[in-house]
Design brief:
Layout (H helix, E strand, L loop, with lengths): L9 E4 L6 H11 L4 E3 L3 E2 L14 E2 L2 H9 L3 E7 L2 E6 H9 L3 E5 L2 H12 L7 E6 L3 H11 L4 H17 L8 E4 L3 H13 L9
Parallel strand pairs: 1-7, 1-8, 2-7, 3-4, 8-9
Antiparallel strand pairs: 3-6, 5-6
Helix pairs in contact: 1-7, 5-6
The structure holds adenosine-5'-diphosphate (ADP) and guanosine-5'-monophosphate.
Length: 203
């Protein structure tokens, strides 16, 4: 399959545990060499199986703050007591390789990128929100993943309600996908990403 004609980065957001990672990992698997992750920096500890430089750049609070002072981030935010940020360098390097960059970021990061854009600078991206079929199912998935402490589950569920409310703001997201049946949601994501670019984006 030819790469997407709209090569702008795709920002994927949605509550923790909704299936963002599951969906874009399918995209990576089914379209090798087409996409890449923006590989954020975070101060949280790696989960079992997560590798430094692949899933995240795992870093200390001290180093994270130094990166903020150096203006190294496109956006950064606090989530569940940890810090997360997207480095300018990572997105620039991957875009230069001709890959469509996928950013998995929470709501404050989405707001920051859109505010910068409104002021005429920074990323021109497409925005997808992944919603759960219900809050109950979201909680089941988050717990079922088995990666979070009870305290972390509670923080993430509280924040999920805020993110779900924000997703109703008109004009923020280009596409909202309910991740109920995985393959149906995946197809919606793939179709959205591969839809023809608006005329101004075509090269
Ligand atoms: P996120 O990246 O949004 O935090 P994950 O991709 O880690 O979420 O998914 C959370 C859990 O939900 C995982 O255990 C995953 O296997 C499961 N999951 C994802 N999508 C679905 C789905 N459509 N139906 C059932 N379980 C799902
Ligand atoms: P997790 O700890 O489950 O990997 O991620 C927690 C939350 O942080 C998720 O909502 C994820 O989208 C968000 N996140 C991951 N990386 C970044 C980032 O670079 N910036 C922002 N703003 N959020 C991020």
């Amino acid at each position: 399959m030819a790469p997407p004609s709209d090569s702008r980065p795709v920002v994927i957001s949605g509550p923790s545990g909704v299936g963002k990672g599951t969906l874009y990992n399918l995209l990576f698997e089914r379209h090798p060499d087409t996409f890449c992750s923006s590989v954020s920096h975070t101060t949280r500890s790696p989960r079992e199986g997560e590798r430094d430089g692949v899933h995240y750049h795992f870093t200390t609070m001290e180093n994270f703050e130094r990166l903020i002072a150096d203006d190294a981030f496109i956006e950064h935010a606090k989530f569940g007591g940890n810090r997360y940020g997207t480095s300018k360098q990572t997105v620039a390097e991957q875009t230069a390789k001709g890959r469509v960059v996928i950013l998995d970021i929470e709501m404050e990061g989405v707001k920051q990128i859109q505010e910068q854009r409104a002021r005429g600078s920074s990323l021109d991206a497409r925005y997808v929100f992944i919603a759960p079929p219900s809050v109950e199912l979201l909680e089941q998935r988050l717990r079922g993943r088995g990666t979070e402490t009870e305290e972390s589950v509670q923080k993430r569920l509280t924040q999920a309600l805020v993110e779900l409310e924000y997703s109703k703001t008109p004009g923020v997201h280009d596409k909202i996908i309910v991740n109920d049946d995985l393959e149906t949601a995946y197809k919606e994501l793939e179709d959205f990403i591969y839809q023809p670019a608006p005329a101004a984006q075509q090269v």
